[in-house]
Amino acid sequence: MARKKKTSPIEDLLDIASSINWKVSLLIALISYFIFHHFAIQAIPLSSDLQSVTNSLPKQIFINFSKVLQYIFPVIFIIGACVSSFKNKHRIKLVDKQTGIDSIRDMSWQDFELLVGEAFRRKGFEVKENGGGGADGGIDLVLTKNGKKSIVQCKRWKTFSIGVPLIRELYGAMTSERANDCIFVSSGNYTAEARLFAEDKPIWLIDGSELSKMIAEVQVQPNIVKPSLLKQSVTTSPQCPLCGSAMVKRIARKGANAGNEFWGCSAYPRCRGTS
Q: What are the chain's domains?
């Protein structure tokens, strides 16, 4: 796992300021100025008595720091508010301008993470973006809703299918983070083995077609045509002949067809329909 790059306190504070709502950042900037200014204008206590000087030293230090912090804190949070506002507008444009899976696959991986985060945000989740870059332990987004915590990993892959190793890593991260479930979002597809691994676990796999449908549902003015998605969904995932549930691809482990793919009912083991 890549080591997280060391940052200064100012950089950490700027990250916090830019990750929260820009209105909140502006409010913090205003409040912090008045608080530090209140102490900055106070007179530094003077005394010739050594004991009094020693006792007043912490107050003198705080007053001197306040003279600087009354400007530094507000400036950091004002800059953070500007960055937060820009990112918010960028997220909105990312979601509303998408026209289908091809436009989604053409964006950068950074924008892909922002797109997914904004889509979940519009579905009512609180979203924390980790920023990617390889130091996030495989967690790109942290979602919270109704007291439940979900972790998300995003992969903007055009040609490769997501296999079991990446799903297993995310499942391990979910356990260590004590999350309720985990979500893997890809612009591509998943192998049959990956879907089988996730089947009986709190793991949700969202592929390219499902992501397109999700984006269309949260767009202000949908640019993605839903009927084609529904048609594609029927074509790629047939209904179970026994119960009518969606079917998923599995790998036969026993018998003459061992190792071959087949369609199995997603309601297994309640339903054992195949095709």
A: 9-90 (no CATH), 101-236 (3.40.1350.10), 237-275 (no CATH)
CB 17 within 8 A of CB 76: yes
Contact by Cβ (8 Å): 150, 249: no
Report whether pLDDT(2) > 50: no
Q: What is the pTM of this model?
A: 0.64
| Secondary structure (DSSP) of 37-65 | HHHHTSPPP--S-HHHHHHHHHHHHHHHH
pLDDT tens column, 160-182: 789 999 999 999 999 999 999 99
- Residue pair 180/148 in contact (Cβ under 8 Å)? The answer is yes
Cα 117 from Cα 99, distance rounded (Å): 18
Q: What are phi and psi of 95, to 5 degrees?
A: -70, -50
Tens digit of pLDDT for each residue in 226-265? 544 444 444 456 777 777 777 787 777 666 666 677 778 7
E strands in the chain? 126-129, 141-145, 148-155, 181-186, 203-206, 247-251, 261-265
